[in-house]
Write a structure and sequence with these properties.
This protein is of the alpha/beta class. The chain is 41% helix and 22% strand. InterPro entries: DNA-binding_RecF, DNA-binding_RecF_CS, P-loop_NTPase, RecF/RecN/SMC_N, RecF_2.
Length: 398
């Protein structure tokens, strides 16, 4: 899959932007704060319904505007597609494909991208929520129908938490909450599917991440991923989680049975705290290098390489399994963090993807083989070659 054209309206610092893309590598160059990252962020939003920089959609809308619009023309297997999303300051967001309205959560069915940026170091070093967000975004890209399952789970969790808070306020005991069983059933149905799909995805990533890490670093440090599940007694939100078995052995309890048993065991604590303490919203993933946790043990360089390998492995998995083919690979301000040796290795690793979008503040940071199609950004403007020459001449004369 490739993007052939991007149009933005009232997005970030762009009143209007129109950008044409080429197959292969596309490099966007501009000083910090000029708007180059905003372009690739918009494409990332189109496939994940989220920004890699902010958690609130409101920040994506240009100051003084009521809505921002992202439109992208896509091409896959000779088929052209127009995907659009309108981000509203008030009211629900809206989406269209070929001018027909769809639910925004259906957009990943039509466009797949994998974005790596310096902020992704938080996946490795940050809270469990960052790792859950990473794996869930990849899950939706890999299996788009799971967006509905996750939405159903979130609604059920919200209702169940409301009931638990109400019980705490009124002083009810755990055995007096008969209606809680209804929400338990729904929580287990949706949550068990999410847990099983996450575990399968982590297993599927195990070899791609070894390959990706070795391709960037040039050595095998044994990168590995292990799910840490609250239904097995590991609450990543409360304790220093340690590796544990991720699912029952054949012939043992199913995920749903383990989930129900864990809910029953934590029922008293849940009523006391007014909070659901078991489920995929309390899980984590343990990242390791050389059999040691990356978080707390790995150097900055190792952590950076692991995070980059996670994204390259994700792209490889989508390339292998997705009906959309190669995802669009986006590298936002990545090369500045790498030495010349790793820059060359990364350039080689991404060269086989159908389309790669790269941002950089300094042109010389990016290997020449990735700079054949270069777009310059200046103060929210897409510059053609004559404009670039004029600006450079003006700077040289100062």
């Amino acid at each position: 899959m490739i993007v052939t054209h991007l149009n933005l309206s009232e997005y970030r610092n762009y009143a209007v932007a129109d950008v044409a893309f080429a197959p292969g590598a596309n490099l966007f160059v501009g000083r910090n704060g000029q708007g180059k990252t905003n372009l690739v962020e918009a494409l990332g939003y189109l496939s994940t319904l989220g920004s890699h920089r902010v958690s609130n959609d409101q920040a994506l809308i240009r100051a003084g505007a009521d809505a921002a619009v992202i439109r992208a023309r896509l091409q896959h297997n000779g088929r052209d597609l127009l995907a659009e999303v309108q981000i509203n300051r008030s009211g629900a967001n809206r989406a269209q494909v070929n001018r027909s309205q769809i639910k925004p959560r259906e957009l990943p069915r039509y466009f797949s991208s994998v974005l790596f940026a310096p902020e992704d170091l938080g996946i490795v070093r940050g809270d469990p929520s960052a790792r859950r967000r990473f794996i869930d975004q990849l899950l939706v890209l890999h299996t788009p129908r799971l967006a509905g399952v996750m939405s159903d789970y979130e609604r059920t969790l919200k209702q169940r938490n409301s009931l638990l808070k109400s019980a705490r306020s009124s002083g009810l005991k755990a055995n007096q909450l008969t209606t809680l069983e209804i929400w338990d059933d729904r929580l287990v149905v949706f949550g068990s599917e999410i847990i099983d799909e996450r575990v399968r995805l982590v297993e599927a990533l195990s070899q791609p991440i070894r390959d990706a890490y070795a391709s960037v670093v040039g050595d095998d440090h044994g990168p590995s991923l292990t799910p840490l599940l609250s239904i097995n007694g590991v609450d990543a939100e409360e304790t220093g989680a340690a590796p544990t078995e991720t699912r029952a052995e054949p012939g043992g309890l199913s995920t749903a049975d383990l989930f129900r048993s864990a809910l029953a065991a934590r029922r008293k604590s849940e009523v006391e705290r007014g909070l659901t303490l078991v489920g995929p919203h309390r899980d984590d993933i343990l990242f390791e290098l050389n059999s040691l946790p990356v978080k707390g043990y790995a150097s900055h360089g190792e952590s950076w390489s692991f995070a980059l390998a996670l994204k390259l492995a994700s792209a490889e998995l989508l390339r292998r399994d997705s009906s959309l083919g190669d995802p669009v690979l986006i590298l936002d301000d990545v090369f500045a963090e790498l030495d010349s040796h790793r820059r060359a290795r990364l350039a080689s690793a991404v060269s086989t993807f159908e389309q790669v979008l790269i941002t950089a503040a300094v042109l010389d940071d990016v290997p020449a083989e990735l700079a054949a199609h270069t777009v310059h950004i200046e103060a929210g403007r897409i510059l053609d070659s004559s404009a670039v020459g004029a600006i450079e001449s003006e700077r040289d004369s100062v």
